[in-house]
Amino acid sequence: MNFRFVGSxxxxxVPRFGCDCPACARARVLSSHRRGPCCAEVRLDGRRYxxxxxxxxxxxxxEAERPAAILLxxxxxxxxxxxxxxxxGTGESIPVHGPKDAxxxxxxxxxxxxxxxxPGLKPFRALELGGLTVTPVPLNHSKPTLGFCLDxxxxxxxxxxxxxxxxxxxxxxxxDWAPDVVVxxxxxxxxxxxxxxxxxxxxALQILERLGAPQAYLTHIGxxxxxxxxxxxxxxxxxxxxxxxxLTL
Amino acid sequence: MNFRFVGSxxxxxVPRFGCDCPACARARVLSSHRRGPCCAEVRLDGRRYxxxxxxxxxxxxxEAERPAAILLxxxxxxxxxxxxxxxxGTGESIPVHGPKDAxxxxxxxxxxxxxxxxPGLKPFRALELGGLTVTPVPLNHSKPTLGFCLDxxxxxxxxxxxxxxxxxxxxxxxxDWAPDVVVxxxxxxxxxxxxxxxxxxxxALQILERLGAPQAYLTHIGxxxxxxxxxxxxxxxxxxxxxxxxLTL
Lengths: 249, 249
Description:
2 copies of one chain form a homodimer. With 249 residues, chain A is an alpha/beta fold. Chain A has a single domain (2-242), classed as 4-Layer Sandwich (Metallo-beta-lactamase, Chain A), CATH 3.60.15.10. Chain A is built from 7 helices and 13 strands. In chain A, the strands form 2 sheets. A 7-stranded mixed beta sheet of chain A has the order 7-8-9-10-11-12-13, covered by helices on one side. In chain A, strands 1-2-3-4-5-6 form a 6-stranded mixed beta sheet, with no helix packed on it.
């Protein structure tokens, strides 16, 4: 499979509106340092699968290449807001798989348009999408949220955002499953006084050490962590990198 | 006052995702024919006021010029979706005035960030914003929705979208108020079998004739009306024009 980070930012994105910190100031000048809403895409056997749908140009991107399915980690706006426009399109419906969440986001369920919302995914019950096996795993967030364990028969990638720590059953599953690559939420710097709903850097690194995957990428990055990275002095362990928008594995 | 149509499209926008009609095909090639989510802005005495917040680049636009206030006609996603990003900014709060609507859209009220949601506007009770007097008037839509009658002491403009027809009390108010300019919802062509929540062209023209304003602009235009306009043969009455994105009065 080909995996691409489309957006690697938190809900405020980078630059954050109105913020003059060094990371936000840099992102305004150098577009390569911007971070859009956290999302990714997987290509396999000529098909394109989207992980989350918060990018603001979602419909335009889907015109260029219609997705075979959309996987939603959860129904917070920064992960689904592109659907508000896409749904009113025409043509074949697009399957949307996400966690069981009675509310969803605003009126998406009620006015689904061309979106075909499938029944909520059951944790640890694998979904087959073409040659891709997707196993949803529960995460710790303020809304029902799933991580996705992607297996194309050749490589295993675990996509784990948004989360604060990991539920015990998810961590046990992942240690057995032995992913080649882990993508993990690291929204805040380690100096964050009280992270909630999202990992800070030190918590993310502890989780990665316990999982022991050979390669890991941090995503859902907030501007404060970017500013710390800019200032230097953050030594990441071998095999751990910070993702950026457009990074392809 | 300086009034600018920022977006003049319906919720599907033009081009509509996946549509190959002549209007959508043209808009893909000629960006001047694209129609974004319906919204506008007013400039007066060096201040900028936004009418609706559905444009996808709202935060970027507000960085270039911070708005003094945002007026929301209603809480459908295509009129508020830009707020999901803007709210997580920093600096002074931005006042947001809209109709009384207990639900709003998704978690906007609960997680308002820098948005200062003011109490719901009362119909026909004027709001003073600097030198601009704004009188909200009820409209006919599937969610509580207001039109805005804008008066800078020099000119009167009524902004009336989204609506199917007009409530009697609103039409009576407008006839007394005698606007110089009326901006009106004309989403569908006259051939639409059963318009709901939005005017079709013939209904819009009937309303404009009754109101008798010297100048009128049609907005919230769907791709089907655009295709009819392209095909020609739609003679609009004198003083009635179809708005386009970027049109400034």
